[in-house]
Amino acid sequence: MSTATLERGLNALREQIDAPVAAFFSSCVNCGMCAEACLFYTETGDPKYTPIRKLEPMRRIWEQEYTIVGKLKKLIGLAEPVTDEMLEQWQELIYASCTLCGRCSLVCPVGNDIAFMVRKVREGMVASGNAPPDVQSAAIRAVKIGSPMGIRLKALQAQIKHIEADTGLKIPVDVEGADYLALLSSMEVINFPEYIESLAKIFKQAGVSWTLCSEAFEATNTGIQIGSTDIARELVQRVVDGAEKLKVKYIISPECGHAYTAIRWDGPNLIGRPFPFKVVHILELLDELRASGRISTKDLSGECVTFHDPCSIVRKGGVIDSPRHLMNMVSTNFVEMPDHGKWNWCCGGGGGVSANTDAEELRTRVFRRKKSQLEESGATTLVTACANCRLVIEEGLEEYNMEFPVTGLTEMLAEHLVIEED
Amino acid sequence: MIEPMDFLLWVRGTAFDVSLGIFVIGVVVRFFEIFSLGRAANFAEPRGTEFGPGMRTILTRNIPEAGTFKRQPLTVIAGYVFHIGLLISLFFFVPHIQLFAATFGFGWPGLPTPIVDAAAVLGIAGLLAVLWNRLTNPVMKLLSDKEDYLVWVLTFLPLLTGYLAYHRMVDPYPLILGLHILSIEFFLILFPFTKLMHTFTLFLARWYNGAMHGRRGVES
Ligand code: HEM
Ligand code: SF4
Ligand code: SF4
Question: What is the mean pLDDT of residues B215-220?
Fold first, then answer.
């Protein structure tokens, strides 16, 4: 990365300003409704966390450089400049207190997509050297080692060996011409290898032709989280190269929220061309296998279960109905939380917040929102579809001394899968 | 001292034409500023469409989500009351329509004066409530800058002076009518360069929001 300076930061902000941004800033009436949608405000009551206020650095640049009145004000010395001190002060607002969950974007009465703009401001923060050190080092590890958690291929190979020995299942690696290339998140490799095992089990039963790729197994993209297009592009390019080399028809985005945003929605734009393959989320694929009768389940328990919607998959990703269909496949007693689907509340750890030690205390505070949602649901088990949400929720529950088992949807499906021996 | 009648003639004549000109040109320039920034091509395979969901969001954002409404009912209710009061007084007061018809050659039926009178009172009350909210709600207080208060004054004065003029509460009448028109001229001149522009740009903002979400298969 080239050295960060204020000038670079301001340039990066300028580059991010497009017609939607200008329409949004022109429309904001400072009504404050967005605050009521954001868990960082609702759980702390501190108005500094109001979503639109987090964008003040970019709003100033827009006003001063892209509007007549702002230019005039600047000319006569009435404009407040964006300084290094300001950006430093804004680090907490742009990183520690925004998970890019996108809930504010659904609430603003004039239609401002605030989360879309927070993502843009992050570009300026990185370029000016104001990104949090933890997230920055995760990004460097991702580029150098291939994984934000520093997981190397060897670690994955060891897990594969384990799973193959334990279950007798085969985990295909580098199979050219397979239909599907499955990606993983580091957290799944280390914390939840059950996910890999579940894929193998389900795909064998359903007869899905799939593979992992030794050169591109990491699905997460710290470039997206931190707000560096350069890093994000490099990481996406690795996946594209892997997929093209193995000539797959589809890429499967794993149970990880931001990985889906990264590869499904941002990926093609980062490399500047449409993908020659399709990207599906694992839940979409499983739902397809369900609908076509290729998988079925048995021995469902009547225990009351609920589903936590990962923001990036549901509200920002559009995979809304599939998890519901699948939940009804794994339980006879699935209930929704009070706000669910596109109105779900974030776990508090998305958008790089869980990787940011400066955010730990705040994250625990805002977890109260999820806690009360869980309590109101009446469920006794929580199912989700994102390794990051899962870890953040487990930590939150522990912090508040709540006994509440959390599991992954794919894993739960594999547990109840009907296996027809051939 | 200028005579109230001369003042009235001036604000009705040259001053009105000039401010209307600034308003129209200003609004066009502001839209040009926005559109000239462009929007990058999107290469991600869409799940849904853009146009329809964008249009849909223009409509659906008129209704707040239930949970958000419960947390902040005053902002929504006072906002609705003042906007509706304002729009009725502006577009359904017979003399306003006559003025419009005299200039552009066509008009539309107005509402009975007592209804417009009530709407003006609601508009004024709503604006006062909105101001009180802005001064006391911690989020709005922190967000607000001088422009928010300027915009409030620019909206409040036409309603107030219009009400005073209609009820002949200020003598001489030409003076208050002149002040009413003058306040509208301030409103027109500053409209394109302040948040009052939200009247037009919010349709664009809502469309972009709905379109960007719609593309990903989310109703926003
Ligand atoms: C002549 C036209 C208009 C004027 C003068 C006007 C003026 C204003 C003002 C002064 C505010 C800020 C209120 C505050 O201090 O809290 C405001 C807010 C708002 N306006 Fe308008 N407006 C106009 C038209 C519209 C239209 C056509 C719409 C929607 C279809 C609209 C939607 C809103 C919304 C959603 C808010 C924020 C909510 C609130 O504060 O209650 N406005 N408007
Ligand atoms: S809800 Fe929308 S209009 Fe209101 S303050 Fe937030 S961004 Fe501005
Ligand atoms: S995206 Fe989510 S966390 Fe960020 S400001 Fe909006 S509501 Fe708050």
Answer: 95
Atom nearest to B131 CA in ligand 1: 15
Domain termination site, one of A238, A266, A290: A290
Q: Is A175 on the interface with B (CB under 8 A)?
A: no
Instruction: Note whether B75 and B132 are within 8 A (CB).
Output: no
- Predicted pLDDT of residue A301: 86
Decide if A78 touches B, using CB distance below 8 A: no
Cβ of B71 and A315 within 8 Å? no
In a domain, A142, yes or no: yes
Q: In angstroms, what is the span from residue A105 Cα to ligand 1's centroid?
A: 18
Same domain for A298 and A380: yes
pLDDT reading at A420 higher than 90:
no
- Cβ separation B43–A274 shorter than 8 A: yes
CATH code at B50-215: 1.20.950
Is the pLDDT reported for residue A1 higher than 60? no
Sign of the alpha-carbon dihedral angle for A364, A307, A103, A353: positive
Pick the last residue of a domain from A130, A160, A178. Answer: A130
Are A286 and A315 members of one domain? Answer: no
Mean pLDDT over residues B140-169, rounded? 96
How far is the C-alpha of B121 from the C-alpha of A190, rounded, in Å? Answer: 66
Whether residues A73 and A156 fall in one domain: no
Q: Is the dihedral of CA A46, A48, A54, A59 positive or negative?
A: positive
Q: Which of B80, B83, B193, B204 to mutate to test the pocket of ligand 1 (most atoms within 8 A of CB)?
A: B83
Range of the domain at A79: 3-130
Q: Which of residues 20-59 of A touch B (CB under 8 A)?
A: 20-24, 26-33, 35-37, 41-42, 45, 47-48, 50, 52-53
**Terminus-to-terminus CA distance in chain B, angstroms?**
58
Residue with tokens 């990264």: A262
Q: Do A50 and B217 touch (CB under 8 A)?
A: no
pTM for this model (two decimals): 0.95
Q: Does A106 touch chain B (CB under 8 A)?
A: yes
Q: Which residues contact A78 (CB under 8 A, 6 or more apart)?
A: none
Structure confidence at residue A2 (pLDDT): 63
Percent of chain B whose pLDDT exceeds 90: 92
ipTM beyond 0.85?
A: yes
Per-residue pLDDT at A143 = 79
